[in-house]
Design the sequence.
């Protein structure tokens, strides 16, 4: 299974259990990071995921996964690029939030009226 979390992490693993709240137990889990046409994996083992953090859950077709033209590299090689991508995305999101706040009157995320 592929699980995408709210913080952007992508986990691949074997789904062993779930409940009515979408809490998941993944076995033999690996975390993948991507940058352009390369990816890296880090073994994470047994993972318990709280359902409110799940954005997407999907089955991986292992036959088609082999046809994807991505090259695997070491985690240490790719991580600085991945961290820069995250920082760039955060800066873009902050800029958008400021424009929406200043010009359209929207609340900033995590601000007043954003609680649940």
Sequence:
């Amino acid at each position: 299974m592929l699980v995408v979390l709210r913080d952007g992490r992508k986990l691949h693993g074997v789904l062993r259990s779930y409940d009515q709240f979408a809490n998941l137990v993944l076995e033999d889990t690996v975390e993948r990071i991507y940058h352009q046409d390369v990816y890296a994996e880090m073994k994470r083992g047994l993972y318990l995921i709280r359902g409110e953090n799940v954005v997407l859950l999907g089955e991986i077709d292992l036959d088609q996964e082999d046809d994807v033209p991505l090259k695997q590299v070491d985690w240490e090689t790719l991580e600085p690029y991945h961290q820069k991508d995250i920082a760039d995305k955060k800066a873009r999101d902050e800029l958008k939030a400021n424009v929406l706040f200043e010009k359209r009157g929207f609340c900033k995320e995590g601000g007043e009226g954003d609680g649940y």
Notes: The radius of gyration is 17 Å.
